[in-house]
Design goal:
The chain has twelve helices and no strands.
Length: 216
């Protein structure tokens, strides 16, 4: 399970003492809601299916897939499913290879999602063996599904943008710079990431509200 509301608050309070920018951000926009996903095959399968399609399209594909292979989405069944069956559910040729890569690794026992390495980098390396799961997707899984508190998805554009905003930088910092800035935030970087997404959404919403007040 991901970081709980209590864990988030505790980590962000600690960050506010380390970094005044977080204290100011919390004053502006408050604490974020938890982002929690289930551990296991289904969450990663949903990640793959949701890539580069709308939420509605992903949900439709998921429903057809449930009807075709069963609601449990058993990896062994997916691994053996004919490509034509999966294509009929709305999956592209590329995504079929991703779905089967995940299913085969899990079904064979090569990837044990309930017993990933304790070291974050080793866990990321294990997850990125799955076709279609890059570093960002692996980091998001470890943060939202496993609640690993020091995961820092520095390659995320919204994280970069909001670190720049929080720190008062003149432009969006690079991934390398964001990693360097956040070194002193360890071991609370997972909470920092969740807060940047929260701050980003609240800031955009506030900007839109102000724009809507302007006379036409």
């Amino acid at each position: 399970m991901g970081l709980s509301e209590e864990q988030l608050k505790r980590s962000l309070d600690a960050l506010a003492k380390i970094e005044p920018a977080f204290a100011a951000g919390l004053d502006r926009h408050g604490y974020p809601a938890p982002r929690i996903r289930d551990r296991g095959h289904e969450t990663l399968l949903r990640t793959i299916i949701g890539q580069q399609v709308s939420v509605a399209s992903a949900n439709a594909i998921w429903k057809r897939l449930e009807e075709a292979v069963g609601a449990d989405m058993e990896p062994v069944v997916l691994a053996a499913a004919p490509d034509e069956l999966l294509r009929g559910c709305g999956l592209s040729r590329q995504k079929i290879s991703y779905v089967k890569s995940l299913a085969e690794l899990v079904a064979s026992g090569e990837l044990e999602l309930l017993d990933l390495p304790a070291d974050d980098e080793e866990a990321i390396a294990a997850l990125t063996r799955i076709k279609g799961i890059g570093r960002w997707s692996a980091e998001i899984y470890l943060l939202f599904a496993e609640g690993r508190g020091d995961i820092w998805p520095a390659g995320d554009l919204a994280v970069q943008e909001e670190v720049g905003q929080l720190m008062g930088l003149p432009e969006r910092p690079s991934e390398k710079t964001v990693r360097e800035i956040a070194r002193k935030w360890s071991p609370h970087r997972g909470a920092a990431a969740i807060f940047t997404w929260h701050h980003y959404g609240r800031r955009l919403a506030a900007g839109k509200a102000e724009k809507d007040k302007l006379p036409v």
